[in-house]
Write a structure and sequence with these properties.
92 residues; single chain; globular; 4-stranded mixed β-sheet
Length: 92
Amino acid sequence: MIVRIMGEGQVKLADGHFTELNKLDTDLLEEMEAGDEDGFRRTLGALLDAVRRLGEPLPDDALEPSELILPSPDASLDEVRQMLSDDGLIPG
């Protein structure tokens, strides 16, 4: 799956990594619902770090369609809330 982190670029992630990412996504949703800004910031950073660590960066000149778009590390709680689906940021 091709994942874009807004403002950074794209990475290719194997499907096997989504269990770990979904756990972080669930934690992020819970912190958002609780209005826990510190927890939200920490978990968003951990989610984006995991995508960077587990994924293979695509070249800057690659124009692959992104199947998943994640917010930038400095996105606000409200900006991320607008990006959410019923499943959170990561479907499944």
